[in-house]
Specification:
Its cofactor is pyridoxal 5'-phosphate. The protein is α/β, with parallel strands linked by helices. The protein has helices at about 1-5, 10-20, 60-65, 70-80, 95-105, 120-140, 160, 165-170, 200-215, 240-250, 305-310, 330-345, 350-370, 400-410, 440-459; strands at about 40, 45-50, 55, 115, 145-150, 180-185, 220-225, 255-260, 285, 300, 375-380, 385-390, 395, 415, 415-420, 430.
């Protein structure tokens, strides 16, 4: 820490202000406020360039650093391999690529093939291209439509935004790619009037079937869903939902593509979120926690049946004609393999289950104290608290008020998240996704900060 702080903080801040285009930020505010520069992380904590310490309940801001900061063994493994073999195009193999693909698919019974890329957006693009190519090769081009769910998010590219169920993330970026069709969300707390009832989960899933029938089953190639909706409000599908979704996909020969970019690698308490629900997907995409942010890597994983559809030596156009330049960088699979070992050795998915229960119990206790909390939901170390102005009407608080809670926690040295610029009028959910190494003392500190913030912002 001391050696890092010997640098000239003022110069770094001004260089950032003058030259860096930050993600998801209105830069007008940096004309009067210094950008926050994070310089070091250890375990659950990070320090900014002023020396202030923060407990990070966001795993790097976007739910990525699953094994925590400062893992020397990952950094050492990457360094050692890079000097031996840093990169070769994905048309050839590498030792870490083969080893990680084998280790990964051992955690995913029924899936066998791994396509390496760099980000969650890119992994989802690969999946969409696979679906489209299968449609052309095997269905005369007809089964090309891809269904996606309201409030789900799949990435930042134009194709991913075309499959994005968050209208504010999509705004001003159209026109979008054709052939993407939205299905209704499954948040029972905000249940659609026509779906309300004791079997809401089944009814919300049946709404997907209605869309398939409306579009024509012979035109629908895939359904892309998050196992648990993440930035759209931490939505755990209700009882009966996933079973019905699986049934519908099989009935109409629709490939089930599950986006595990956030939920994968132990976040929910199982290796992948879909495993909480007994689902058997055809395609699974992942990024973020795959290497816990120590290197850039994403994966598009498929069944052997999907892979086989691209094998036809008689057709020069049959293979998957795609490339990801930096999918050939060995740092990704090297870091991912060491990250996987840490998750196994320290039993971090199990810890996520235990600490997730502790976190949700604490949030429910806060709900008893603060009427502004209308709903608590989540699974493992992935939880949300929806804030409302009135519990009876469920009128949401404003995004500005939610931001004030986040800012208050920041002043206390605790970083939490919140839904923002996603769902019009419903950016009212506090988001919690601490690293899977979290202990009870860490959870207590997070809850204490939220308790104080709610008291100050809402009285």
């Amino acid at each position: 820490m001391d050696s890092l702080m010997q640098n000239d903080p003022a110069r770094v801040i001004e260089a950032d202000r003058a030259h860096v285009w930050h993600h998801m930020m209105q830069h007008r505010q940096l004309e009067t406020t210094d950008p926050r520069i994070i310089v070091e992380g250890r375990g659950m904590r990070v320090w900014d360039i002023t020396g202030k310490e923060h407990l990070d309940a966001t795993s790097g801001g976007v739910w990525t650093v699953n094994v925590g900061y400062g893992r020397e063994r990952i950094a050492d493994a990457v360094r050692d391999h890079l000097v031996k073999m840093c990169y070769f195009a994905g048309s050839q193999g590498t030792v870490p690529g083969a080893r990680f693909a084998e280790a990964l698919t051992e955690k995913m019974p029924g899936l066998s093939r791994v396509y390496f890329a760099n980000s969650g957006s890119e992994a989802n693009e690969k999946a969409f291209k696979m679906v489209r190519q299968i449609a052309h090769k095997h269905h005369g081009g007809r089964k090309s439509k891809i269904l996606y769910r309201e409030r789900d998010y799949h990435g930042t590219t134009l194709a991913c935004l075309s499959a994005g169920g968050q209208l504010e993330r999509n705004a001003q970026y159209g026109p979008f790619a054709p052939g993407f069709v939205m299905v209704p969300h499954c948040l029972e707390y905000r249940a659609q009037d026509e779906f309300a009832g004791s079997d809401y989960g089944v009814r919300a899933a049946e709404a997907i079937e209605e869309v398939i029938l409306r579009e024509g089953p012979d035109t629908v190639g895939a359904l892309c869903l998050e196992p648990i909706t993440a930035g759209g409000g931490i939505i755990v599908p209700p009882r009966g939902y996933w079973e019905k979704v699986q049934e519908i996909c099989r009935k109409y020969d629709v490939l089930l593509h599950i986006d595990e970019v956030v939920c994968g690698m132990g976040r929910t308490g199982t290796w992948f979120g879909y495993q909480q629900f007994g689902v058997k997907p055809d395609i699974v995409t992942m990024a973020k926690g795959v290497a816990s942010g120590y290197a850039a890597i994403s994966c598009c994983v498929t069944t052997e049946a999907v892979f086989e559809r691209f094998k036809d030596a008689s057709d020069p156009m049959a293979h998957f004609r795609d490339i990801s330049t930096f999918g050939g960088c060995t740092s990704g699979p090297v870091a991912a393999l060491e990250n996987l070992r840490i998750l196994e050795e320290e039993e971090l998915p199990d810890n996520s289950t235990r600490m997730g229960v502790y976190l949700q119990e604490g949030l429910f206790a806060l709900m008893e104290k603060h009427r502004v909390i209308g709903d608590v939901r989540g699974m493992g170390l992935f939880a949300g608290a929806e804030l409302v102005a009135d519990r009876d009407t469920r009128e949401p608080v404003s995004e500005k008020q939610v931001g004030a809670v986040v800012a208050d926690c920041l002043k206390q040295g605790v970083l939490i998240g919140a839904s923002n610029r996603s769902v019009p009028g419903l950016n009212n959910v506090l988001l919690f996704a601490p690293a899977l190494i979290a202990e009870e003392d860490d959870i207590d500190e997070i809850l204490e900060a939220v308790d104080g913030a709610l008291g100050r912002v809402f009285g």
